[in-house]
Write a structure and sequence with these properties.
Length: 109
């Protein structure tokens, strides 16, 4: 039960942080769905920024962090929720693919 509460707290933090960016996020999402790489990269940057604000991470998206920490129940629930939301746009296993892509592209110090 405690893990579910932690998950809810984290998701609320994401949502509150995201409210600052809701209009730009919506416009960028529509533009990205039309094929704009610039809009997609901007959305990814917002994702990394929100993850950084909420967790103090460096160059890690919420999806990749959720997959990386999936052994903790709160991140497992979060990963399942994100995968459910992303499935219509990105197919199954969004978080795992995000983690693999970030791991191969971003060189961490």
């Amino acid at each position: 039960m405690f893990s579910m509460l932690k998950t809810l707290r984290t998701l609320v933090c994401y949502l509150l942080s995201g409210l600052l960016f809701i209009l730009p996020f919506t416009l960028l999402a529509l533009w990205a769905l039309l094929g704009s790489k610039w809009a997609f990269n901007s959305l990814y940057s917002l994702d990394v920024l929100i993850c950084s604000i909420c967790h103090g991470t460096h160059l890690e998206s919420i999806s990749a962090r959720s997959y990386r920490l999936r052994n903790d129940k709160r991140y497992l629930y979060q990963m399942l929720f994100i995968d459910l939301l992303a499935k219509p746009f990105d197919g199954a296993d969004h978080c795992e693919r995000a983690w693999r892509w970030e791991k191969s592209v971003i060189k961490r110090p």
